[in-house]
Structure formats: structure tokens, C-alpha cells
Amino acid sequence: MTKLLQISVVILAFGFSILSIVAAPLDPNTTFRVVNVSVSDTSGLNVRDFPVEASNLGNAKVVGHLSWQASGIITSGMVVRFPNGALWRHIRFGDIIGWVNGKFLEAEPFTRTGEQLPEKLFCGGTEPFWGLRVSKTSSTYDGAGLKNDKWVEDEKLDFLASNQIAGRPTKTWSVTLKQKSASQYITTLISRTGEYCSDGMSDRDYPYQAIVLPGNVPVPMQGCCQRDIGR
Predict the structure, then answer these.
(1) CA 24 from chain center: how many Å?
(2) Would you call 8 helix, strand, or coil by DSSP?
(3) Which of 80, 118, 175, 226 could pair with 188 in a Cys bridge, judged by C-beta atoms 3.0 to 4.6 Å apart?
């Protein structure tokens, strides 16, 4: 194991222990179907631009509707939980992207031979602020944590590898990206521990936790990831 990876694993274990905990997230690859909506409800289930408590529904714009029998609904894994127990999920169905009250969604049967990271992820963190989009064709990085001026905002990165780390009790993957214009790398450790990840600033909780090591200088940053359903 390289020195850089050893450092990152130690930081990962420490950082994850202080993240806020709410409830165990579902696998972000899980799909959903609409429930608790009457067939006679011709307008279907409202999808809104942001999650909101029942008393303030009028403040959230309706961006689409789901039929009472809609299925195959995908989710980013991001949720918002309100004090009254309501849980809203961030979803996509066709061209509709928005938020739905979770009481109207039911997880569909999900069979897999081994859990995999979604093909596209968006990760980010605060203080310092950074963002990382991960996919095999369009990875980009924007943020702090480097002690040189060689990084370009939203510069595309080469996707090199995504490997599940062996020997851990949780599901953790190491994702390696390379800057196209220089021999510098971003190593990201992404983990799903059975607890939600909080960015520490918003009311949104995420299914993955992340430690990012941008560049050749080990300046690790902590953050959260979700399935990227916007692309």
C-alpha cells in the first residue's frame, strides 16, 4: 500500500466517525414505484422543485407529475427528513427531476450479484468548497486543496480506475482520475456505511461518504456523494 493511500484510509476511518447519522440509506441503484395514489387521481403524484413540509406545499413549484402506476423511478439517494418524520426523496423519471414525499414511493425488488457504484456520481464538500463529477467519459473537478496553480476549473479528467477495497467491513471504493494536462491525480475513497452523510451546512443527507486527495500533495478533504441523475 502506498503512503498516500495509507494516509487516506486513516483519514477516512476518522472522518466517517464524526459524520451525522440519521437512518440507513437504501442502495442508490434501487428503483421505486408510486404507491398510495388513487387510480382516480388524474393529476397523479406531484414532483416538486425542492422538499417542503406539508404546511408549506404552496412554496414549492410543481415540476412534473407521476402516474399512479409509474415504476422504474430512479433516485440520487439524496433525502431530506423533516421533524414530523416525513422523508422526501430526490428522483428522476424520464425528463422529470425533482423531489417527492417518500410515503408515495415504494422500493422495487432489487437483485444484484454484488453492489456496484453508480456509473455517474456527484461528490462535494464544504469548508473548503469543492465538487467532483465522476464518470468514465466526463469527470471534472472544481475546488480547493491544491498547492499549485495547474488545475483548471471544470477541466475534464481521465477516468483511470474504480476498485472496491478489500478487507473492510463497509463497502468502499477507490476511484482514480488523472488531469489531462499534467501528471497529477485525484484519488477519491467513496464509502456506503449504512449511515447517511451530511455536508454540515444543508438539511440534505447523502448515501455516500467521501475523502478526496486532489493532486500530488496530500491535502485530503471530506464530503458526500450522490448518484448523478442530472446527466
Answers:
(1) 14
(2) helix
(3) 175
Residue corresponding to grid cell 427528513: 81
Enumerate the domain spans of the chain: 3-23+113-227, 32-107
Rounded (5°) CA angle 20-25-26: 170
- 129 pLDDT higher than 60: yes
pLDDT per position as a tens digit, 104-119: 999 998 765 557 889 9
Q: How far apart are CA 223 and CA 108, in angstroms?
A: 29
For the chain, how long is the longest CA-to-CA vector?
62
CA distances from 204 to 8, 90, 122, 201 (A): 25, 10, 14, 9
> What is the model's pLDDT at position 130?
84
Q: Taking 60 as the threshold, does the pLDDT of residue 147 lie above it?
A: no
- Sign, CA dihedral 93-170-17-144, equals negative
On the question of pLDDT at 12 being above 50, the answer is no
Q: Give the integer Cα–Cα distance in Å for 70 and 185.
A: 42
Q: How far apart (Å, rounded) are the C-alpha atoms in residues 71 and 48?
A: 18
Of 209, 214, 211, 197, residue with least CA distance to 117: 209
Output DSSP code: residue 221.
E
Structure confidence by residue, pLDDT tens digits, 37-64: 999 988 899 999 999 998 888 889 999 9
Cα dihedral 19, 22, 25, 31, rounded to 10, equals: -130
